[in-house]
Amino acid sequence: MSKFQYVIIGGSIAAVAAIEGIRSKDSEGSILVIGEENHVAYGRPLISYYLLGETDLPRMDYRPADFYEKNGVTLRLGVRATAIHPAKKTVELAGGEKIGYEKLLVATGSRPFEPPMEGIENVKERYHFMTMDDALSLEKALSPEKRALIIGAGLIGLKCFEGIAVRVKHTAIVDLAPRILPSILDEAGAKMVQRVLEEHNATFYLADSVAHFDEHKATLKSGKEVEFDILITAVGVRPNVELIKEAGGEVSRGIVIDAGGRTTLPDVYAAGDCAESFDVASGTKKILALLPNASFQGRVAGVNMAGGEAELTDAAAFNSIGFFGTHVMTAGVYEGEEHLDRTETSYKALFFKDGVLKGFILIDHPERAGIYTMLLRKRIPLSETDLKTLEGAPKWSALPEEMRRDFAREV
Amino acid sequence: MKRIYVNEKWCLGCHLCEYECAYANSGIADMVRALKGKTIHPRVQVDEDGDIHFAVNCRHCTDPVCVQSCISGALTKGEDGVVRIDQEKCVGCLTCVLVCPYGAVLPSPEGHAAMKCQLCTDNQMGEPNCVKHCPNGAIVFEERSAL
Amino acid sequence: MELYIRPDYEVVRNESRCIACRVCERQCANEVHSFDPETGLMRSDESKCVNCHRCVSLCPTHALKIVKTDDTYRENANWEAQTIHEVYRQANTGGVLLSSMGNPKPYPVFWDKLLINASQVTNPPIDPLREPMETKLYLGSRKANIVRGEDGLLKDTLPPQLKLSVPIMFSAMSYGSISYNAHESLARAAEELGTYYNTGEGGLHKDFYKYGKNTIVQVASGRFGVHKEYLEAAAAIEIKMGQGAKPGIGGHLPGAKITEDVSETRMIPKGIDAISPAPHHDIYSIEDLKQLVDSLKEATEYKKPVIVKIAAVHNAAAIASGIARSGADIIAIDGYRGGTGAAPTRIRDNVGIPIEMALAQIDTRLREEGIRDNVSLVVGGSVRSSADVVKAIALGADACYIGTAALLALGCHLCRSCHTGKCNWGIATQRPDLVKRLNPDLGYKRLVNLVSAWKHEIEEMMGGMGINSLEALKGNRLMLRGIGLTDTELRLLGVRYAGESL
């Protein structure tokens, strides 16, 4: 049986960040990455940009070609881990091979959720939009005379639309929610973005769902009928928690971890879309299935696995996403006092509660938005800030002198 | 590493640094030709509110949140400590803009990418041009400790 | 009716170079420049321009220049435009004209009519890079008596001295007339250079007590800012009887420059013009002066030299003779070209005499009376270069005060608008947004640079003369020759004409 100091199940962003975290403390210990996908790490959100032609396969690699070699990482790609045995400190692979570890990171991510839909088996051209392989097979199916139907007007569904918009004849998008991007936009913001998408040949069926599928036709609950050639389902994801659950680790919505990335199993860590985070904006534990969060968690776990001390205490939901040049930035939760600034083409909403910034929506106001994110993530009390100025634009000059001293030192 | 620091006490809010930055990164040898009649998009920005002014550049953080948040791997922290952005890899999602606590990563005017101060290592200047031309020594390029 | 007076200057903007960065607009406290959003072009209102060159200096594309207007009245050698304007201005306002900095009128500059000697063959020059050259000196009275203690050993009875590493000090400029940052620059430069700066009659800011060993504190007719700790903090105390820029009148600090901090330092009310009396109301004779000298010495336990500063006036030599007998250790003489933060124009431009004449006469008189060693002589009032310093020492000075030159090093462009309180260079202002334009970290280095450069030049000139110490140069008028001077001028200066050998 081979044995590694560090074993990482999953080969995506959390894994890369964990490798970097480990190597910041331990330049020697052996590292094994077991990845189910047959690719080295790439930014999954890039797949829509790939379809748009804004990037290509070589450029999608998340790290330079020599990254794994330089960091002394053994890669096992296209291999699935089927079980972990915390008592024996081994990981079992499909086919029965066992590998020993000192520290284990579970970074297994998530998989597309498949709701039961009547007649779905009638549809031949069915796709998800999550992995590079999904994008490559979808790409093969695209053609200018085909009609697409996307189930789900969330981040994945709409980014998929942007990617395929000019490569298909027309796209219909159905969502159960009454507005698009329901998890990140309020009604006004959603309307504005919806208009942009409609200008690019999308037809929305909101507050609606498919009652029945035929091969080229979806009949909606409302009775409307939508004809299509390609179906993409993007209704959400489910975390891959089974390895931990079966090994006896605590799982809630996702794998339960502490601020240092430790699961309830000894020497087993978790990070990324399979694990929960403590969301500072809502004050609750939830899965923040976002690339940056996977990266933060992976790094923290890596540092701790290598004997360092790291904690993730400022996790929050935030998204920066563009559709045909319209840029949407959101963060946190939309509770409390609302400050709105709206024009024909841009939208800005800030939400203040308990003396801190709780959330924001910025449509086409990207400039220096990170200052708002910082205020939100660090829960900076706004009692001493020039709130009026801050509402106008994110600025450090509106913050107390004490904070501004930060500019005089290394950070 | 040597970084750019601003001292609010001496920053006059004259905005010269912004123009010197735009010039330095224009790739054009003559400042007038580089900037005349153009809207500038400098990588250093004077943050101001009333009598408070200070020029903000990339801080080249020890643990850069922009690098950790980059969805494409376009942002990296080099062995020299400089946080750089690979314009070829960048797809312009602006996640870095959304996470930079200093507001120092900026949308590039051409769209499809972000841009940031790279300490004039990516142009002909050789040394940070904003520092060189600050009339009051408010922006300096030096080694400092975390404390 | 107010008569329009056309501006003296025009702002010339090279439109082909201007990039409309608006730095000129942001940097002009006089609000000359503005941006026209409709045309995207910069505009200027020259009626507000004081020609301080802040915009010219900071314009990144060098698109600006300020030129003298060529608008002209009918030519008249007697009634020049400036004279006419002053009449108009007074007819408009009924007020006394105010000016700043030194007398700008085209009176002769005697420094420029004196040439320095050099050694050839018989008395070879000294190379200051290879051989020792002494620029250190002491200021104070040399009136030591030979006294033996009970043990029979000689007792040191030498009065207190100021030790200078160069024969240059920064002259009196008050906090109030100049900014906090200007003072900090001067104080730090004095410390690094091993010389002294002078508080003027503005008191000593609490932050600057730490530079006390390089500080000369002034006691002037208004007694502003004078108290026990102030006197104790200093290396020397200067009694200001007069100032070269405005002999016969007291100081004037416009109320606008009297901020909270200035008011606290000076111990005077905020925002109200501070006018110090023309005379010291307790001094009407040399005997009265002696009482103040003695009081100050008593107050500071005879540990600090006392300087008496007078303006160079017609009877300067006789007055100096009196001062030398008053117990003062040092006499400072301020020539009629000396600067000021505010003075009535007529006084500044018409009262007093050149420092060169006053110095030569005072040195001569004190020597003749055998009391030259009672005191040291410090001169100021337009010492513009190291050559002026060398000439002053050869005429009999121990050291020089520089004021205007120091301010130039800090960025002053001699626009002579100090009295408006809107100095764009952060020097003669108390407006916080303007004060911060002078970063003392940069300012003090420029002062150190200037004085260090002058020191090198002084060494070069001394070496050329074959002289290796200031002591050997002092009063050595044979090292000077006059050019373009009348017999009277030569006699008063005590120098021979160029070409005249020994």
CATH secondary-structure class of the largest domain in chain C:
Alpha Beta
Radius of gyration of chain C: 24 Å
CATH topology of the largest domain in chain C: TIM Barrel
- Mean pLDDT across all amino acids of chain B: 94
Count of strand segments of chain C: 23
Beta percentage of chain C is: 15-25%
Uncertain segments of chain C of ≥5 residues (pLDDT<50)?
Answer: none
What's the shape of chain B?
globular
Please outline the major beta sheet of chain B: 2 strands, antiparallel
What is CATH's topology name of the largest domain in chain B? Alpha-Beta Plaits
Relative helix content of chain C: 25-40%
Strand neighbour order, sheet with most strands of chain C: 11-21-20-18-17-14-13-12
Q: Most extensive interface: pair and counts?
A: A-B, 48 and 49 residues
Q: How would you name the oligomeric state of the polypeptide chains in this document?
A: heterotrimer
Task: Please give the order of strands in the largest beta sheet of chain B.
Answer: 1-8
Distance between the termini of chain C: 66 Å
Q: So what's the CATH class of the largest domain in chain B?
A: Alpha Beta
Query: What is the CATH superfamily label of the largest domain in chain C?
Result: Aldolase class I
What is shown here, in short?
The complex is a heterotrimer of chains A (411), B (147) and C (502). Chain B has 147 residues and is of the alpha+beta class.
Describe this structure in words.
- The complex is a heterotrimer of chains A (411), B (147) and C (502).
- Chain A has 411 residues and is an alpha/beta fold.
- Chain A has three domains: 2-111 and 238-305, FAD/NAD(P)-binding domain (3-Layer(bba) Sandwich); 120-233, 3-Layer(bba) Sandwich (FAD/NAD(P)-binding domain), CATH 3.50.50; 325-408, 2-Layer Sandwich (Enolase-like, domain 1), CATH 3.30.390.
- Chain A is 24% helix and 29% strand.
- Chain A has twelve helices and 24 strands.
- Chain A is globular.
- The two termini of chain A are 44 Å apart.
- The model of chain A has no long low-confidence stretch (mean pLDDT 95).
- In chain B, the strands form four sheets. Chain B has a two-stranded antiparallel ribbon with strand order 1-8. In chain B, strands 2-3 form a two-stranded antiparallel ribbon. A two-stranded antiparallel sheet of chain B has the order 4-5.
- Chain B starts with a strand and ends with a strand.
- Chain B has two domains: 1-57 and 122-147, Alpha-Beta Plaits (2-Layer Sandwich), CATH 3.30.70; 61-116, Alpha-Beta Plaits (2-Layer Sandwich), CATH 3.30.70.
- The model of chain B has no long low-confidence stretch (mean pLDDT 94).
- Chain B has helices at residues 16-24, 31-35, 65-69, 95-99, 129-133, and strands at residues 2-6, 45-49, 52-56, 75-77, 83-85, 105-107, 114-116, 139-143.
- Chain C folds into two domains: 9-95, Alpha-Beta Plaits, CATH 3.30.70.20; 137-470, TIM Barrel (Alpha-Beta Barrel).
- Chain C contains 16 helices and 23 strands.
- Chain C starts with 8 loop residues before the first strand and ends in a 5-residue tail after the last strand.
- The chains are: A alpha/beta (411), B alpha+beta (147), C alpha/beta (502).
- Chains in contact: A-B, B-C.
- Chains A and B meet through α9, β20, β21 and α10 of A and β1, β2, β3, α3 and α4 of B.
